[in-house]
Amino acid sequence: MKQTTRKAGRSTVVRLFSQLGGQRVRLTVVAVSIVIYVGLSIYNPMYSAQVIDHLWQSIQAAWNNNTPFSITWTNMGRELTQLSVQYFFTWIFYYLQSYLMANVAETLNLNLRNQIARKLNRLPLRFFDQNKAGEILSRVTSDLDKIAEVLQTGLLKMLVAIGTVIGSLIVMFYYSVSLTCIFLVFMLASMWITRIVARKNLRCAVERQETIGELTGIVEEYYNGRDVIKAYNHEQESETQVAAAAEKNRAANQKADFLTNCVNPLIRLLTRLAHVVIAIIAGRAMLAGSMTVGVVQAFFQYINQTAEPLTEASFMLNSLQSALASARRTFELLDDEEEIPDPVHPARLEHAKGKIAFSHVSFGYNPGQLLMQDISFEAQPGQKIAVVGSTGAGKTTLVNLLMRFYEVNAGKITLDGVNAAEMPRAGLRENFGMVLQDTWLFSGTVAENIAYGRPDATREEIMAAARAAKVDYFIRTMPQGYDTLLDNEAANLSAGQRQLLTIARVFLCDPPVVILDEATSSVDTRTELEIGKAMKQLMHGRTSFVIAHRLSTIRDADTILFMEHGNIIEQGNHQQLLEKKGAYAALYYSQFE
């Protein structure tokens, strides 16, 4: 189990850094800056030892000769200036690497977000059925932010720390082997503690990101269903579930944060003890004349340069572990199974007439559990096909297969004799106009929402579509008419008004095939009658699929498909099905008793 986790971690690291391939120039400059910065950080204490020893000797000479001490260009001025210039360039290269690394991290963040955006467009509907929107959102936001944050701080500190620690230890051994060995004993104890904590922290980091996704998903779900929650007096239950998810996230955060932060005080205590022991021994060495003041102060600078990164190693490692967990979740999303790609040489269909045929189609959301078996029917151009049945009978699934939102397990669906599976999805779907039971409007003007399927439409065409959908008068009563901005899911519009706007969207596209999934379910009876008249004119010469629960609205359909448990058990026109006295007749008469 541990070996599998390590392999997964290594593969995640390799894949994450492969994403940085397009930023080689910036990374090269960062690497050069790190090398120069580390070199200066190691050389500065050595040079300061010489400067302080020279300064101490000058002060002693002035004291012994009873002459005033002064600093001139030749007496310490040149050395102090050089030391100041070195410190200045140390700051310059630290600033340069920090700036460029922030650029690299945010560019990586942007690239991953773009990959996820493209990925979401290639994922089948099955993925969205199985995952909450909030969980997906957490991967696009908090996970990627965690990766960028750690690359900017944790990784950069780690690289600088490795170079600084190695260089500092070499110089420390040069100055005093015994003092360096004493220091290493304390630091090895610190590293052992860090290793134990880092091993446990990865599991905690994964758990923390998962609980964030779960909490985000619940909050997003309850926000969208706030009206239903209030209507059924479930405020207390929803608060309890949100509180439970928040408590779970708090516990995971507390555990991860404790492991991240608790080790630092202990390591700092060990470092301070090392300082005390080394200070006593170094003091005796100075009294014995085996070490100078400058060397001792330089040695303590190296101790700080070495001990501080080792002290922060636990924090840096834990941060990198969190980024690793976030990267793993991100790559899991990017690796999820996609839709079947479009054919290399797709079939093209220009100016479709609208002949639809299902030929021995079978489908199941899970391959071993078929929902539909051996479905066959035809719709001639211009015909109105009604799909009826009880809830869960498979009506919406039928039209989803028509739009290739799902792939069939067997059989084929054709448009004007062309197999839909052999067409590019975009080319297939541009022949359909769809109005769903659940309306969707985006933030933008009324005109932009109507023209969503035809962004190049003129204002006159948009207004004509609105008039056809019986929504033009309502739009004109709005503050800015067609230029009125809709936001917050058009919450200021009624459900019927939102539905009318989506119907106008289909009018404007003017496709050869129209799909209406309970399109008039949210409008009043009078508006439904007006839309019905306009829809008859729109559907003249076009194939239309109408999913309806109210059978009175589809009596004029050319073919009625009655579905039950995913299969078509009856088909024919209204009069034929009534004469059969079967399931359709029973449902029809039950609505008018």
> Which structural category do the helix and sheet elements fall into?
alpha/beta
Strand content: 5-15%
Query: What best-fitting shape do the alpha-carbon axes yield?
Result: elongated
Q: Multimeric state of these chains? A: single chain
| Low-pLDDT windows of residues | none
How many helical stretches? 19
- Mean of all residue-level pLDDT scores: 83
Largest sheet: 6 strands, mixed
**Proportion of residues in helical segments:** 55-70%
Number of strands: 12
The whole-angstrom Rg is 36 Å
Q: Could you give the distance between the termini?
A: 65 Å
Task: Give me the side-by-side strand order of the main sheet.
Answer: 6-9-10-3-11-12
Give an account of the 3D structure.
The chain has 593 residues and is α/β, with parallel strands linked by helices. It is built from 19 helices and twelve strands. It has helices spanning 2-18, 24-65, 77-122, 125-130, 133-175, 177-224, 226-231, 235-261, 263-288, 293-334, 395-402, 425-429, 446-450, 459-468, 472-476, 495-509, 525-539, 574-580, 583-591, and strands spanning 356-363, 372-379, 384-389, 410-415, 418-419, 432-435, 444-445, 485-486, 513-517, 543-547, 559-564, 567-572. Strands 6-9-10-3-11-12 form a six-stranded mixed beta sheet, sandwiched between helices. The protein has a four-stranded antiparallel beta sheet with strand order 2-1-4-5, with no helix packed on it. Strand 11 and strand 12 (567-572) form a beta hairpin. Helix 2 runs antiparallel to helix 3, helix 2 packs parallel to helix 5 and helix 6 (177-224) runs antiparallel to helix 9. The chain is elongated and about 125 Å long. The two termini are 65 Å apart.
